[in-house]
Amino acid sequence: MSVVELHVHAPGMLGPLPADAAALIDTTGAVGAVEELLRGAGATVGQPWAGYRSRMRLFGLADDDEGRGVASLSALGDGIDPGSDQFFLADPIQLIPDRDRLLVGVSGSEGIPPGTLKALMNELNVYLADDNLELLSGSSGQWYLRSSTRQSVRSLPLDRVLGRSMSECLPWGEDTATWMRVLNTVQMLLHDTQVNRDRLVQGRPVLNGLWPWGGGRLPEAPRATRWKRVFTETPLTRGLCLLARVRYGSLPDAEEIMTEAGSGPILLDLPDFPAVRDAETFADWQRALGAFGQDWAEPLSSAVSRGHLRRLVIHASGWRIERKRALIPYPRRRRRLRDWLMTR
Known about the structure:
This protein has helices at residues 30-38, 51-58, 70-77, 114-128, 176-191, 194-202, 235-244, 254-257, 279-306, 337-340, and strands at residues 3-9, 42-45, 86-98, 101-106, 133-137, 143-147, 209-216, 229-232, 247-249, 266-269, 309-316, 319-324. By secondary structure, the chain is an alpha/beta fold. The protein folds into two domains: 3-62 and 220-340, Alkaline Phosphatase, subunit A (3-Layer(aba) Sandwich), CATH 3.40.720.10; 70-216, no CATH class.
């Protein structure tokens, strides 16, 4: 038996990268397996959508550059019933003083013991309750802000504000004044907590703010979806599967996925690759690319060549890359990995 059609969603695998970073890539070892997988493939290129946008599109749902509706779908896939409430992703951020402005940086909640995290959320929720808001944590660790009343406010996704001045990226809408008051209160409450004192000792970024985005209620289910089965660890994709009534499971290894024989297309949704902003995140991205080469590129390339996988489609950074087994072997044009990279 063979897998008829496998789609691999790998957001950020091929960038975008700073233009001068492409020449720095080391294509030896496992990264070279990625280059080999792409060699001779047919491809079309489009807009390098962020991961949340391309996931919505893979399920035939409307998307926008603000990610509206992403939070409620993520909550659904994260073990939370959104009901008719409005949800926002509430990403922990580090506000970094820079002369007369505050820059938005990555924080996260890694390293906070579960009991401490729950106590922190309970403390914040005492103040948020006055505005019918509640801070929740999903099974993945993602933070959410639930509103039992309609909030007419919009904001940019976190990936579009990192490294920028907060004053340039403020939310907007009818309820902006209420929203800004809530965010300022959260900042003051987080300023001098034991959590941040511990994080300073651990050398972790402090958690002194929240960035809510992706607000909205659950959308209507898509009329139809092409996927027979989906493999993912991403709450948004799990939520999309639940909405569309598509079977899903945790990420398998390459050998396991080759046992999924059948006529319908299978979607393998991988975690987002690290966004490249500096030398440190470039190293993180290259390590993730090497892991993809070892875990997926080598076995998938072999599966296509042997006929165990009839059609492979990779969705990455705006590219739609297709590999099929050639019935008559022919030399494949050598295309370097850097030729595939999206730069900015």
